[in-house]
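Record filed here:
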Amino acid sequence: MLQKTNAATLAELDHHDHPESHSVFGFWVYLMTDCVLFAALFATFGVLGHQFAGGPTGKDLFDIPGVALETAVLLLSSITYGFAMLGAHQRKNGMVLGWLAVTFVLGASFLVLELREFSHLIAEGAGPQRSAFLSSFFTLVATHGLHVFFGLVWMLVMMIQVVRARQLGEQEIRRLTCLSLFWHFLDVVWICVFSFVYLGSVL
């Protein structure tokens, strides 16, 4: 009886020393707030997307093959991040680092392509101040791009943590899981941008 009591006491102390983490649930809550943000931006574009003020329309400006390339690069980065998570669950630091590096390069390439598109539009006189259509377009797409940028910074931090860790623990895997949720969420948002903003403006 005494042994059982001691075992129960030790288990309770261990539970208090290592409380169950709620970070993944909290991150889901954060993603829901981000959903509200992007929903508001999509709604704004839906209202202002036909206010051209005598300026160019999406059909005049958007290079669909170029945007399709951006889309393919970002979707591919989601797949490579999935391989990184497989390595994380197998506790293979090298595999995680390798796939995170590939994902980082793809994400950075997406941003370069997006910045090149913005530069081209502004050079043609189609900057965000030209019309309500372009203001809502730049705001929505740039907000997504900013999220990608912060995701890349987060990815660099995680790569440093993986290098420092001799073996991946539950804490590192939990952080990688949160980043995975964030990265896949950005893919879903971009698919909506590609379909609703680009294709919807051209068709």
Notes: The helical segments are 2-17, 23-48, 58-61, 64-89, 93-123, 132-164, 170-202. The domain at 22-202 is CATH 1.20.120.80 (Four Helix Bundle (Hemerythrin (Met), subunit A)).
